[in-house]
Input
Amino acid sequence: MLTIKNLVKTYPKSDRVAVDDISFELRPGEIFGFLGQNGAGKSTTIKCLTGILPFDSGTIEVCGYDIVKEPIKAKMNMGYVPDNHSVYEKLTGREYVNYVADLYGVPSEIRKARIDRFAKLFRLEFAIDRQIKSYSHGMKQKICIIAALIHEPKLWVLDEPMMGLDPQSTAEIIAHMREHCAKGNTVFFSSHNLDLVKKLCHRVAIVNDGKLIDLFELENNEENKANLEERFFRITGTYTERLFADYIAQESEDMRPEMPSASTTAKKKESLKEGLASLFKNVKTKFGGADNKATESSENESASQVSLNEGENVSDLNSNDSHADNKELAGTQDNMQSDFTQNGEGDEQ
Output
């Protein structure tokens, strides 16, 4: 479906090799994940295989067609969803998809049925005839996906397709990726979501600094799935023990003394309950002949008194502060009155 051999790409005025001798092959009916940190060479590789960027050396074949020698035939078998959803925003969604369908030579009757089906599938029926500039990020991503699928490509290429999408939109795209794959087609996509890749992909490749470092199976391989995160971080040189441990649980209490632990708070509450229970027991023992209702009333009053102590203390403090402020204000007023009187007498003299 896709064969890349010894691909090399260097950007002009740059000494760094963006893609350094990468080779791999995609099989029909699989979802293939392409992983790497920012700047690793993922998007450059994708732009080379879609014919957007020229490359220095190597070969790329899509369904047996060389992307350099037979670019039109290669691209006719490919659908591409970029990471920046570049579209003509003054067109409506339907007009844009029809424009792309014209480029791929999709007959009118077939395209209409597909547009209606995809609009319903991705819940764009209410917006398909509105200008794209009024769309949200997720809606623009969906219209790009519809345009990429309008000609039923054998190879579907997506560059970070889930970025910025809500959970519902993400679930819809994942479902169609699986459906497209089940028809014998191939899905090739880059992503930073390792958990999604783990659940969705049959195989995965990891690139770093322009080189293909690892390529391995995920389907029916629980060990590789379980180790994907650690494998990725070790390959990209960002592995630390802290990323794979419960850091918060290991944090000692002396690092945050102002925040008592849950266990300490629970012990204090339990101690307070035991103290109150002991107090009430002593009261009952001492005044055993008293009426039960009076005892219950005493217990309730005691409990209320305990719970309100803190509030009363705060109220007393506020009251004292208020008296002090009033005295200070009164003293200030007396002084001002005295100064005014003295100044008046001075003026008369």
